[in-house]
């Protein structure tokens, strides 16, 4: 997705600035998002229980999803701001915004189903 937005940047926009901003955000957000994640450092009896391992994997996947979503919406915002005079490019940014919202809805729905299954099975 990053490559599509980067390739669509208009000629008046400094592509190096966009690339540096996106790389900085994508490197910093996972650190901020995972800072509150509670991963046990001392497993009981030298092994990690499968339920704990599944919960850790699901939590990490959730934070990665949130991070990628935030980065995508920042990129979409940059697209809107950089193409104010071009209606064709604004329609591309609007479609990206709509599909980004659909993607977040599907991700939240999938995470809800996963949590429902995990709670039903006792994870």
Topology at a glance:
Elements lengths: L1 H6 L7 H20 L15 H33 L4 H35 L2
Rg is 19 Å
SS-based class: mainly alpha
N-to-C order of helices and strands = HHHH
* Share of helical residues: over 70%
Query: How is the main sheet built?
Result: none
Mean pLDDT: 76
Question: What's the tally of helices?
Answer: 4
Domain count: the total is 1
Shape by Cα distribution: elongated
N-end to C-end Cα span: 34 Å
Strand proportion: under 5%
Q: Which stretches are poorly predicted, pLDDT < 50 over at least 5 residues?
A: none
Number of strands: 0
Short description:
By secondary structure, the chain is mainly α. The chain is 76% helix and 0% strand.
Structural features, described:
This protein is mainly alpha-helical and 123 residues long. The chain has one domain (14-38, 50-121). 76% of the residues lie in helices and 0% in strands. It contains four helices and no strands. The protein has helices spanning 2-7, 15-34, 50-82, 87-121.
Labels describing this entry:
elongated, single chain, mainly alpha, 76% helix, 0% strand, 123 residues
């Amino acid at each position: 997705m990053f490559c599509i937005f980067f390739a669509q940047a208009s000629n008046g926009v400094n592509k190096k600035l966009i690339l540096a901003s996106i790389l900085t955000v994508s490197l910093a957000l996972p650190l901020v998002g995972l800072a509150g994640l509670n991963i046990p450092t001392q497993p009981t009896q030298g092994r990690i229980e499968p339920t704990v391992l599944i919960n850790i994997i699901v939590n990490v996947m959730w934070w990665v999803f949130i991070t990628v979503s935030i980065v995508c919406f920042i990129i979409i915002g940059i697209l809107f701001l950089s193409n104010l005079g071009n209606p064709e490019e604004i329609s591309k940014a609007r479609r990206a915004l709509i599909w980004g919202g659909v993607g977040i809805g599907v991700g939240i729905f999938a995470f809800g189903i996963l949590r429902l299954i995990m709670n039903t099975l006792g994870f």
